[in-house]
Amino acid sequence: MYLRTSIETLASPFTVGLESSILTIGSCFSDFLGEKLEQDKFSCLSNPFGTLYNPVSIAKLLRHSMQLQTTPSHLFWENEGIWYHHDYHSQWWAFEREELEKIIEKTHLEVHHFLRKTQVVILTLGTAYVHKIKPNLNIVSNCHKRPAQDFKKELLSVKETVHAMSSLLDQLLVYNGKIKVILTVSPVRHTRETLQGNSLSKSILRVACHELAEKYAHVSYFPSYEIMIDDLRDYRFFQPDLIHPNEVALDYIFDLFKKTYVSRCTQEWLVQWQKVKQGLTHRPLHPGTSSHRQFLAQLKTQLDTLGNTVNLSQERDWIDLQLNQLG
Known about the structure:
Layout: E1 21-26, H1 28-39, E2 43-46, H2 55-67, E3 76-79, E4 82-85, H3 97-117, E5 120-125, E6 129-133, E7 138-140, E8 151-155, H4 158-175, E9 180-185, H5 194-215, E10 219-221, H6 224-232, H7 247-261, H8 264-280, H9 290-305, H10 313-326
Parallel strand pairs: 1-2, 1-5, 5-9, 9-10
Antiparallel strand pairs: 3-4, 6-7, 6-8
């Protein structure tokens, strides 16, 4: 008897390794992926523009970075002495408009250079609903708590989604001919749009991702949403808000991600790294004893066996500091 329907074995047309540079862009699930990749010592630039939910905004900001376009001045917004921009998350703010503009342009310059050496871009699509700011009806990524009447809310069609992403994918390939793209639909449900609206929105994104993966050889789809909804499929894998995946679910999804995309030799390295990482976070029961010193010495030896594939100087310095403090 089977008690759950687990996701089938996934295959990818390409793999990534510790030598790969990875850029994550999109919903809050991109933050999670970026954080986990960084913890595993991948070279990763994680969601540099903050949370972006809709595919049009994702495409717009990446295009801005590639072309180093001027930041649209009509989308700056001042509220109670703080400046925001409707194309960016509220984490990007400043007391002066000019200061915010410099912050934004500095971020785009960083992405501009990172994209030149990037092997993989992970695009996490959150919703097909968009907000168009009046009167020009430009699609924006953040309303910054402005009155609802300042915006027109619409649902992108599959055709509009595919068009926006196709334009981006074409430009990425011209900008960096070696780039690979992983598309995924966020496992976070957008219940603000109602459950019916969430299902409609996610299905549009899913169909669009399918069409894009079929169209482009350098594009792959990873089923984050399907793993959450059809594989895990239980509220014990959600946070108390019943919307966001909990830590167990996220770790399960990330483990499948690694099995799908990470090269075999890097996976073998990661097994050893996990053991060392656990040792680095270990809290000794009897600090300062000879057994604690022996544990640190063994941990340093384990660290040395990992080689020079990635920079582990910070971890080595921490162990040396602990040993020096013991005298």
